[in-house]
Specification:
By secondary structure, the protein is α+β, with helices and mostly antiparallel strands. The strands form two sheets. Strands 1, 2, 3, 4, 5, 6, 8, 9, 13 and 16 form a ten-stranded mixed sheet that branches. The protein has a six-stranded antiparallel sheet with strand order 12-11-10-7-14-15, covered by helices on one side. Helix 2 (39-52) packs across helix 7 (134-142), helix 3 (68-77) packs across helix 4 (89-99) and helix 8 (176-191) crosses helix 9. The protein is elongated and about 55 Å long. 32% of the residues lie in helices and 31% in strands.
Length: 329
């Protein structure tokens, strides 16, 4: 039986089964796109690790990023108590947003885990889960050590005038870095390398708008000026909120004013070295709420994916201990 035939048969099995074994994992495999990836070989490696640990599981494979939401909802409705995402930050974002749509009692019965496999796996990296060590990751997940984690939440109005909310695990970016993250996702398909795509995105940055008129309220401070980028982190925020952790009930915020060109390159250097907060143009905060009253023409990214830019003002808060997450032992 071919890889694709096996995937289709398992997908049908999930749709027809109502009574699930509570110890069985429901796995959503999100293949990594790009010229350098082999989804079939990657899954076969993961499958060998699962079998070696004696894990009982069913899995489905996403056809594209738009199908993740539907498949996660299907796993939830079919009664799986352990849902593992084989994917990156964007797939995890879809998963937690699906979980936040169900009642708390039902959500508290489900544990979410990840085997990193995306273009950006920063939330997995925070827990020291590595793409090239599937065997260790599966062993850790099998030990089922659960930690209640926080989520950030953005509340906004969309272009249709609907009041919306979206949750995030890692961060929200507003401004230049949101644009860079978007470029990074696009160039990753061509370079296949996280580092090369990131550096190339920085080079393309010179063609982008470098500052935006913003009006922010953070704690007792009110900022009304030109700002280059803002990162609101529930976790390290792709290096921009390096001290943020998803279990202290707080959001870390980095506000970056527009530096001189020489300072800009110094900032890139400090960013790569993990010392982003040391730059003189970076102003850090810790809070439970950020009000963005204005951010003219600034792109907004959430967990590395572009979202439709909110219309008008929006608010970012933290929801404490709302998701059961499987972490290393």
């Amino acid at each position: 039986m071919s890889f694709d035939e096996k995937r289709v048969n398992l997908h049908k099995k999930l749709l027809l089964t109502n009574d699930m074994n509570e110890n069985k994992w429901g796995i959503l495999y999100c293949p990594k796109s790009g010229y350098w990836s082999s989804p079939k070989k990657r899954w076969e490696k993961i499958e060998r690790c699962l079998q070696a640990e004696g894990i009982d599981y069913d899995y489905v494979q996403s056809e594209n990023s738009g199908s993740v939401d539907r498949l996660v909802k299907m796993l939830i409705s079919n009664g799986y108590k352990t849902i593992v995402i084989v994917g990156g930050d964007s797939a995890l974002n879809d998963a937690v947003n699906c979980l936040m749509q169900i009642d708390q009692q039902h959500r508290d019965e489900i544990a979410l885990g990840v085997i990193p496999n995306g273009m950006m796996n920063d939330f997995a990296h925070f827990w020291e889960l590595k793409e090239d060590d599937v065997e260790q990751t599966v062993k850790w997940l099998h030990q089922r050590r659960i930690r209640k984690i926080d989520l950030g939440c953005i509340r906004y109005v969309n272009k249709q005038g609907d009041h919306c909310r979206r949750y995030f695990l890692n961060c929200i970016n507003i401004g230049l870095v949101a644009t860079i993250m978007n470029l990074r996702r696009q160039t990753h398909h061509y370079f296949g390398s996280r580092t090369l795509s990131f550096l190339f995105s920085f080079l393309l940055m010179i063609f982008q708008r470098l500052e935006y008129k913003m009006h922010l309220k953070i704690n007792t401070d009110e900022l009304k000026r030109k700002i280059m980028t803002v990162c609101i982190g529930n976790a390290p925020g792709y290096g921009q909120t390096p001290n943020a952790v998803p279990y202290n009930g707080q959001l870390d915020v980095s506000v970056v004013y527009h530096p001189e060109m020489t300072q800009l390159f110094e900032g890139i250097y400090l960013f790569v070295r993990g010392k982003f907060l040391n730059h003189r143009s970076v102003h850090p905060y810790r809070t439970q709420k950020v009000e963005v009253l204005k951010a003219e023409h600034a792109m907004v990214g959430i967990d590395g994916r572009m979202m439709n830019t909110p219309v008008g003002a929006f608010t970012v808060t933290v929801e404490q201990e709302v998701i059961n997450f499987l972490i290393p032992a």
